[in-house]
Design brief:
single chain, 71 residues, 52% helix
Length: 71
């Protein structure tokens, strides 16, 4: 799957990814990550500029979900 570089694309709904060299969606799709892994990356990448601790809690929820799936 070829993924287009989206660094110059306007982010719909916010600018919290604009200063990143690689947008999370590009990293996630380029590395064939699953839904939970992708959400972890997304929330960790944006927590400082968007929802702070709430995004970290969301990332932790997905991490805990994956841990339970592998136990």
């Amino acid at each position: 799957m070829e993924v287009a570089n989206t660094n110059n694309r306007k982010q719909i709904g916010g600018s919290h990814y604009e200063k990143m060299t690689i947008e999370p969606i590009d990293f996630i799709t380029s590395n064939n990550m699953g839904f939970c892994e992708g959400n972890i990356i997304k929330y960790i990448c944006r927590y400082k500029d968007k929802n702070g601790g709430e995004d970290l809690k969301k990332a932790k929820w997905y991490i805990d979900f994956l841990i339970k799936a592998y136990e």
